[in-house]
Design goal:
119 residues; seven-stranded mixed sheet; 57% strand; globular
Length: 119
């Protein structure tokens, strides 16, 4: 059973920084693509950033240059460094770990961590 635990959320002023962590247990984390999603009230969940097992990264256009995703496979942890935060970054941030196994897509989610950016 794969478990993902997010941490690092909180309240920060616009222009500030936060670092989110996603710690995994119960699996060989390095074989998963890990992504951060966010969901603001009344909006759909959106992909913020992702990193493959090989280290390839992708970002939502609105966070490029401000957010950085990284992973430490030895610690089974993925990070999202968020700088120059804006009020529109306010959302619940979720960690997702995904991989294909045979013909099936395996997806695991954390419980989410709240990020609130005040203006």
């Amino acid at each position: 059973q794969v478990q993902l635990v997010e941490s690092g959320g909180g309240l920060v002023q616009a222009g500030g920084s936060l670092r989110l962590s996603c710690a995994a247990s119960g699996t060989i984390f390095s074989i998963f693509t890990v992504s951060w999603y966010r969901q603001a009230p009344g909006k759909q969940r959106e992909l913020v950033a992702g990193i493959t097992g090989g280290g390839l990264k992708n970002y939502l256009d609105s966070v490029k240059g401000r957010f950085t995703i990284s992973r430490d496979n030895a610690k089974n942890t993925v990070y999202l460094q968020m700088n120059s935060l804006k009020p529109e970054d306010t959302a619940v941030y979720y960690c997702n770990a995904a991989r294909r196994l045979g013909g099936a897509q395996l997806d695991y989610w954390g419980q989410g961590t709240q990020v609130t950016v005040s203006s």
